Amino acid sequence: MGLPCIHCGEDCGKHPVMWNDKPFCCNGCKTVYQILNQNEMKQYYEIEKMPGIKVETHDVGDKYAFLDLDEVKEKLLDFSDSGTGKVTFFVPVIHCASCIWLLENLNTLHTGIIHSSVNFPKKEVYITFKEDEISLRQIAELLASIHYVPEITLDSLDKDKKGKSDKTLIIKIGITGFVLMNVMFYNIPEYLPGGEFLGKKFTEFFGWMSLILSIPVIAYCSNDYFLSAIKSLKHKIISIDLPIALGITTLFLQSAYDVISGTGIGYLDSLAGLVFFLLVGKWYQGKTYQALSFERDYKSYFPIAVTRINNGKEEVILLEKLQAGDHILVRNMELIPADSVIVKGDGNIDYSFVTGESLPVLKHSGDNVFAGGRQIGSAIELEINKEVEQSYLTQLWNQESSSEKSESKLNDLVNKISQYFTAIVLSIAAAAGIYWLFNDPSIALFAFTSVLIVACPCALALTVPFTFGSTMRQFGRKGFYLKKTEVIERLNKVTTIVFDKTGTITHSKAMKIEFIGDSLDEEKLLMIKSLVRHSTHPLSAALFQNIEGENFYEVNNYIEIPAMGISGEINGVKINIGSRKFVTGKDDNSESLKTEVFVYFSGKILGHFEMENRYREGLPEVIQSLKDKYDLHLITGDNESEKENLKSLFGDKATIRFNRSPTDKLEYIKKLKERGKTVLMIGDGLNDAGALNESDVGITIADDIYHFSPACDAILESKRFKDLHKFIKFTNTSLNIVKVSFLISFLYNVFGIYFAVAGLLTPVFAAILMPISSISVVAFATFSISFFSKSAFKE
Amino acid sequence: MSIIFLLIIIGVIVAGLFLAGFIWSVKSGQYEDSYSPSVRILFDDHKESGNTDTKPNENKNRDNKNKNNNSKDSN
Which CATH number is A65-157 given? Predict the structure, then answer.
């Protein structure tokens, strides 16, 4: 073990890059340190230890050239006037206090930046700058130079209006809270002994004040409930919002009547309290993970601009302007934006994100390449066949219609209950009214309204937001992020679980490696490690990780041939490492389905490495505990090399399918759904995007949750995969807690209705019963969730 | 006793001002990020470079926190 890098904290190995007596793991980290040191910004390293970010490729080149385009500028700038511009960048790597400090002191690095501030939960930087001193492109390059690489995608060009509704909700809560406090204050003399000494004038005055203050609550703050009640009535559904709207209206009308007629002070404090609790519940439920995106389509994966070759000249154009027949240049690590043909150069294309296939594919000039692949190696020239929107995979990802269907089909527990609830309450109210009409007509109407008031299902309506809201928070703390609370209920109904293989149940990078042939001594292993150190190929990286040792040899005459292998000389010994064809000279026509890497040492073939994907930790336990309760399916784009392994792992009942294309996966889910199954799909890449979208619940496994992941209902951190079954099981606990909470709130309702039917509902009674019922239900729900989650997720 | 009428009217007006302050603070986006102000306040001002730009921002956020508490408690 070497020293930790001062910048990023990573192990520096045996030969750290030294500067000023400080160790760095790579030149990139050293450069950032130097930049900050020059500008006297060493505080960055004092706020948090080793806060930096390691970036593998440092050469920015023309990556941000598109930011010089006027169309991009216009879309990206939040504001631009008389030489001052404002821009928002999404920087997913923001993670600590040091990041905030550095990004808010960008003006020390460049005088053209006037002001910058960070929104931590959204991981965004707002930058105000002088347009004549620094361009948008230079800002992006400045951020990239200190390794805070901004993520600019097609998506970010379409401005979102997401935050707005959240703001109005908070304002509504504020207003209702204000009214609640004031009205409660006016009503206290009524409730306390001795209040009657104040005289009738005061009662009237307080009544009118309460009534006036309550108008914004009924007219503005609770309008969502009225709108939703009307909307569901139109669809002939009785939702929970209907009895709420009914209760609120009755409360207001009864109180208004009391105040105007001078008979009392009304129930306006109860009204404000009710709306206040409901809105708080709504806010609690709606609080989601701001920096995570569950709605991504290909637009957030694709670049904004591409380099077009026009009459031998390179020019940067917007992706949407790309047409069939255009020639474009795709450099190392750049994405192929549309289906096309290679015109010049050799492509070494990594489709890992699109198809799940972990190894790059070699393509020669004249070959077709699909959109979504990433070029590794030297630049290639392509001729576009199809426009971006019509490319094979883009079309697959764009099938979104089906996900909406499952949304409206959802008949959740609350709405089912509220149908009966509303009917029962209305009939009780009517019965009470009719009974009193014959016995004491003076209180008939009052009894009727009292029932509606007291039966307003406030506690009932709060149960779900708080139970599911705190379940979602507990899950979030454990690395499982839900898009919405509704996902919990859907997850509980799942009957069938479909897994993807590569990247989902296996690690996307780590591999199991075995050497077959003559045994290798330590020296030879170290020589291999020294050689593969120079290559960026995924297999080289895997070998490098798996061989121990730190003393590297010097490599001479190093050559890398794409899709073949690498060779070089160490201490005069010629070493070739690579494919069968490259090392042995024979064609690769073996039956073996495993990935093989052959090794040649000075005239002799020593043998080959066999590489297999490694399963995620805890996979056997997860499968074991899901096997009995659910139908398990595994569907993968890979070959059958691991068939036996998987069979024994998944058991005989499970269905396993190999060599499936992304479209096959989608069709597979569709068929399962047609057979009446509720399907949970667990996948990772864009190749699963269609299936994730089609399934009832789609979970994406991600190594880095802030990075791109396909549209889904939930994101699971890959290191928490071992808890998958616990999460699924816990949804059942949540649902049980909801049921118990329902029972509690029903008891309150029965108790209240008993008094209401008897015509005994006084304002003070309502003012005490309603908050107590709400608070006790909320407290029960949140505490029991946190209590049960502790035992459910014990290590 | 009639002074109470006046007091109550004044009370509502004062509380209303705090409510207006609260609404303003929400609209200006001060509740969007509750983490960074809490660490921003702990940053030392750099001696060498006069980064005064960040200062007003810090104060704003601090004021706002008090205001928020008041608007709920003032009654």
Answer: 3.30.70.100
Instruction: Match 């990556």 to its residue by tokens.
Output: A63
Q: Which of A682, A676, A640, A681 is nearest to A657 (CA)?
A: A640
Nearest CA in chain B to A173: B23
Contact between A121 and B35 using a beta-carbon 8 Å cutoff: yes
Query: What are the pLDDT digits (tens) for A266-304?
Result: 889 999 999 999 999 888 887 767 667 676 666 667 777
Judged by DSSP in three states, A255 sits in: helix
ipTM of the complex: 0.73
Min Cα distance B63 → chain A (Å) is 17
Facing residue for A205 by CB, picked from B5, B23, B71: B5
The Cα A121–Cα A127 span in angstroms is 17
Q: Which residues of A touch B7 (CB under 8 A)?
A: none
Distance of alpha carbon A328 from alpha carbon A186, whole angstroms: 73
Alpha-carbon span A686 to A708, nearest angstrom: 9
Quote the DSSP letter at residue B46.
Answer: P
Does residue B61 register a pLDDT over 60?
Answer: no
End-to-end CA distance of chain B: give it in Å, rounded: 20
Q: Can you give the pLDDT at residue B67?
A: 43
Tokens 């003006």, residue located: A107
Taking the C-alpha atoms of residue A150 and residue A339, their distance in angstroms, rounded to an integer, is 27
Choose the mutation target among B31, B38, B43, B64 for the interface with A, i.e. most A CBs under 10 Å: B43
CB A448 within 8 A of CB A433: yes
User: Chain B within 8 Å of A40 (Cβ-Cβ)?
Assistant: yes
Most confident of the following: A116-120, A614-618, A790-794? A116-120
Task: Note whether A104 contacts B33, CB cutoff 8 Å.
Answer: no
- Of A477, A473, A487, A470, nearest in space to A782 by CA: A470
Per-residue pLDDT tens over the stretch A605-618: 888 888 777 788 88
CB contact under 8 A, A209 and B75: no
Distance from CA of B36 to the nearest CA of A (A): 6
| pLDDT tens string A439-480 | 888 888 888 888 888 888 888 888 888 898 899 888 988 889
One of 3.40.920.10, 2.70.150.10, 3.40.630.30, 3.30.1330.30 is the CATH number of A303-336+339-385, namely 2.70.150.10
Q: Which residues of A touch B71 (CB under 8 A)?
A: 174, 177-178
Minimal C-alpha gap between A11 and chain B (Å) = 28
List chain A residues with CB under 8 Å of B44.
Answer: 43
Please report how many Cα atoms fall inside a 13 Å half-sphere around the Cα of residue B22, on the Cβ side: 25
Using an 8 Å CB-CB cutoff, list chain A residues near B31.
Answer: 170
Q: What is the CATH number of domain A481-506+616-728?
A: 3.40.50.1000
> Given this model, what pLDDT does residue B73 score?
42
Q: Is the dihedral of CA B21, B26, B27, B33 positive or negative?
A: positive
Q: Which CATH architecture has domain A507-615?
A: 3-Layer(aba) Sandwich (3.40)
- Which candidate in A106, A120, A126, A214 is best for mutational testing of the B interface (most B CBs within 10 A)? A120
User: Is there a contact between B26 and A202 if contact means CB atoms under 8 Å apart?
Assistant: no
Question: Is the Cβ–Cβ distance between A728 and A682 less than 8 Å?
Answer: no
Residue A174 has a pLDDT of 94
Q: What HEC string does A330-362 produce?
A: ECCCCECCCCEEEEECCEEEECHHHHCCCCCEE
CB contact under 8 A, A182 and B22: no
